Amino acid sequence: MARAVTRQRKIVNTALAWGIGFLIFFPILWTILTSFKTEAQAIADPPIFLGFNWTLANYEAVLERSNYGRFLWNSIIIAGGSTVLGILIAVPAAWSMAFVPGKRTKDILLWMLSTKMLPAVGVLYPIYLLCIQFGVLDSKIALVIILMLINLPIIVWMLYTYFREIPGEILEAARMDGASLREEVLYVLTPMAIPGIASTLLLNFILAWNEAFWTLNLTAAKAAPLTAFIASYSSPEGLFYAKLSAASTMAIAPILILGWFSQKQLVSGLTFGAVK
Amino acid sequence: MGQIKLNQVSKSFGDVEVIPPLDLTIEDGEFTVFVGPSGCGKSTLLRLIAGLEDITSGHIDIDGTDATHVPPAKRGLAMVFQSYALYPHMSVRKNIAFPMKMAGVPAEEQQRRIEAAAKALNLTDYLDRRPGQLSGGQRQRVAIGRAIVREPSAFLFDEPLSNLDAALRVGMRLEISELHKRLATTMIYVTHDQVEAMTMADKIVVLRAGYIEQVGTPLELYYKPRNEFVAGFIGSPKMNLIKGPEAEARGAPTIGIRPEHFDVSTTEGAWEGTIGVAEHLGSDTFLHIHGVAGCDPMTVRVDGELSVKHGDRIFLTPQADKLHRFDAQGLRVE
Amino acid sequence: MATQHSRSAARLMMAPAVVLLLGWMLIPLTMTLYFSFKKYLPMRGGDLGWVGFDNYVRFVTSSAFWPSVMTTLIIVGGVLAITVGLGILLAILLNQPMWGQGFVRILVIAPFFVMPTVSALVWKNMFMDPNYGLFAHLWEFFGATPVQWMSQASLSSIVIIVSWQWLPFATLILLTAIQSLDREQLDAAEMDGAPATKRFAYITLPHLGRAITVVILIQTIFLLSIFAEIFVTTGGAFGTKTLTYLIFQRVLESQNIGLGSAGGVYAIILANIVAIFLMRIVGKNLDA
C-alpha cells in the first residue's frame, strides 16, 4: 500500500462492514439460535436473543419425527455421486480442451455451457416420463445422473479453467521424459491439478446438495434428499419454529462449512472464468 | 551418437506455412544454435525435431534412421524448456529421476546418476527441495540435470536463459558451454540473442520467417554475412548499412560497415558528423553520429579513453578492407 | 503441442462428455417439442392426437400467461436491481482497508450456501409471519401494523428472499473484479487531479462493467427458473406465479402435457435469448 490510511477511517470501515455482514448473516444465526429454544421461547414476544434455556429437545424431536438419517444419506449419495461421476467424465474432456485445443474447442465449450441454460421446467415432463420408462422414478440413481448432467458443463468449465493455468511445457517435458499419455495424466497433470479438482468437487457438491427442482419433483418417499425433507415442513401444521430451525440447521450446517472453504473458487467457477 | 538430419522438412499450421521445406544437417557432437528474431520459426523447428509437433512434409533422420513418426519419448532426445517445466509437486531428486523412472532404469543406477548430476551442477544440497523453493538459476540447473541423466543422443534447449537476469545469464552460458565440452554430445540451442549464439555455437543457423538465411561458424557469419539480414543481425552494436551515393562510390548499392571498423579522428577523415549520444561503457565508447553518409545515426565503436561528448564534431574513415558490399537484392557481393 | 497422436487421443477423451450432454439436450428437447404439438392429458384420455400450434396459442392466450410473464419480470428485475446495486456498494466497502475482512467475507457469502427450500421457509415463518415473525415484532415495536407479507406483499417477499440468496454471489464477483483493478490506474487518475467520485465513475465503474454484465446474465438464467422459493412459500398463489411455475402447474398439477410443453418451449426460447448474450461475453474471454 502506497498510502497511509487514517486509523479513524479504518475503524469506520470495520464497524460498517461488520454491521452489514452481521445483518446479512443474521437469518442464519437466528435459525441456529432458535433451534436451541423451546417452542414457546421461539415465538416469545418480545423475541429472546440469547437469554433462553438452551435445549437439544428440538433436534431429538426432528430426528424422531422423520428419518433424518435417510434424507441425509440420500443427499450425500445424490450430491456426492453426481459430483464424482461428473468429475470422472469431465477430467479427460477438460484435459483435451485445455492442452490439445482444436478449431472447435471453443464452440464445444460454449455449447456445453448452453445446455446448462436449458430451463429445467421445459423438459420436466420428458424426464419424468423417461424416469417412469426406465423404472427409476424416486430413485437415487436417476437423480445422480440428472444432477451430474446439469452440473457437467460447470465441472468441465472449472477444470478447463484450472488446467489452462498449468503450463503446457510441463506436460511436454513429461512427454520428452518418456511418459506415456496415461503416465502423463497420472504422474504429472493430476497431482498438479489436485487443488483445482478439489475445489471443483466442493463447489459442485454444494450445487448438487442445494438443487431443489429435480430433487423435489422426481422423488417421493424413497430417494428424497434434505431439500425435500425441509419442504415437508412447509405445510402449516401448527407452530414449530424451533423444530423447523433444528431441521434447517441440520440441512445447511454441513454445506455451509464446505461452502466457506470453497468461496474463493466460487467466483471463477460460476462465472466460467469470465471474472477472475 | 547424435547426428540429426532434416530433409525437406516443412510445417504448416492450417493454411499458414511457418516453415517452408528446408534441409539441415547437425553433426554429432556439434553445438548448433538456431537464432533469429521472434516469430522466425526457430522454436517450431526445435519442436519438430523433438517430435512435439508433427511435420507437414519431409522427414527427420536421427543417427541415420528415420524418426519422422517416432514419438518424442522414443527419439532419445532431452529438452530444456524456456520455463524449465519442472514438476512442481516433486522434489528436485524426483524431478531428475522422472525420465529414468519412465525408462525403467534400476534404482541404484538412478541413484548413481542423480548423485553425479547433482554434483556436477552444484545441486547436492538441494535434492530434497521443491522447485518452488529454488532460485531461477537453480531451477535451470535442475532442468539441465533432468536432461543429462537420460544420457540422450542430443540436447535441445529452447531459449533456456531468457528468464534469468543478465548476470546469471552470463554464468549459465558458460556452464552450458562447459557442459558441452565435457559431454561432447550434440546440442541444439534456440535463442533470439545473437550474443548467446556467437559465444556458444560451433555452428549458427540464422532463421527468418522460416527460411534459413545462413549456416556457418560464428566468425564466418561475422566476417562474411551472406546478406543484409544476417549482417544486421549478427554483431553488436549492429552493422551500419549505407545506401546512396556514398555506397555507389564504393561499388555497390548498399555497403555495410561494422561500428568497430572505423578510423576515428577529431581533425580529419572521409566523413564528418556530429556526435548525438556517446555511450560510455568504460572499456569502449559507442558513438551515435548524425549527418554522415546517409546513415543516421551511424554507430561507431571507439576506445573508452577517447574523450568526446554530445555535440562534438568528429571525422570517420571506414576501413576499406572491412567493407561489406550488397547488391540490390541485399545479397553479398565479393 | 499437437501431434496427430495427441489429437486423436483428445477426441476420444472428450467423447463421453459431449455424447452425454448431446443426449441430455436433444432427447428431452425433442420430446418436449413433440408433446407441444399434441393434445396430451395422461389422466384424462392420454394422447388425443395432433393439434398443430393450438397449445402455443392457448398457452399465450390463457388468462394466466401475461400475469406470469409480468411476475417473472418483476422478480428477475427486482432481484437484479437489488443485488447489483447493493452488491456494488458492498464490494466497494469490503475492498476498503479494515480489520477482519476475511471474517466479513465469510458472513456475507453464507446465504449463498443455504438450500433454497430452507431459506424460503425460514424467511416465510420466522421473519415474515404476521403473528410471530421477527418483522411483525419489529413493526409492532415501532407502533405499525404488521404486514401480511405472504398474502399482501407476496411478490416483494419473494424478491427479498431471493435477493438475500443472491446478494452474496453478486458481491463476491464484484469484489473480485474490484480487487483486480490496477491500483496504479487509480493512482494515476489521482495524480491527474480526479476526485474520488470521478475516479469511481470513470475508472472503477467501467472496470466493473464486464463483471456486472456477467452477474446480470448468470443471475438471470438462475432467476428465470427459481422454483423452490415459490413452491414452499406461496405455492404460486397471491400473484407469485412465474412462467416457470405456471408451466410446472400445467404439467404436474393439471397434467396437461401438451400445454405445458408449449410453455416449456417458450421458456427455452426466453432462456436462449439471455444465453446468447452470456455466450458472447464468455466467448470473448476465451480468446483473451
Automatic annotation (TrEMBL), chain B:
It comes from the Bacteria. Keywords: ATP-binding, Nucleotide-binding, Transport. Residues 4-234 form the ABC transporter domain. The keyword Transport applies. GO terms for molecular function: ATP binding. Gene3D superfamilies: 2.40.50.100, Nucleic acid-binding proteins (2.40.50.140), P-loop containing nucleotide triphosphate hydrolases (3.40.50.300). CDD domains: ABC_MalK_N. SMART domains: AAA. It holds the Pfam family ABC_tran. Belongs to the ABC transporter superfamily. This is Maltose/maltodextrin import ATP-binding protein MalK. It comes from Sulfitobacter dubius.
TrEMBL record, chain C:
It comes from the Bacteria. The keyword Secreted does not apply. Keywords: Cell membrane, Membrane, Transmembrane, Transmembrane helix, Transport. It is a multi-pass membrane protein. Gene3D superfamilies: MetI-like. Residues 69-278 form the ABC transmembrane type-1 domain. InterPro entries: ABC_transporter_permease (IPR051393), MetI-like (IPR000515), MetI-like_sf (IPR035906). The chain crosses the membrane at residues 12-37, 65-94, 106-123, 155-178, 208-237, 257-279. It is found in: Cell membrane. Coiled coil: none annotated. PANTHER family: ABC TRANSPORTER PERMEASE PROTEIN. Belongs to the binding-protein-dependent transport system permease family. This is Trehalose transport system permease protein SugA. It comes from Sulfitobacter dubius. The lineage of its organism: Bacteria, Pseudomonadati, Pseudomonadota, Alphaproteobacteria, Rhodobacterales.
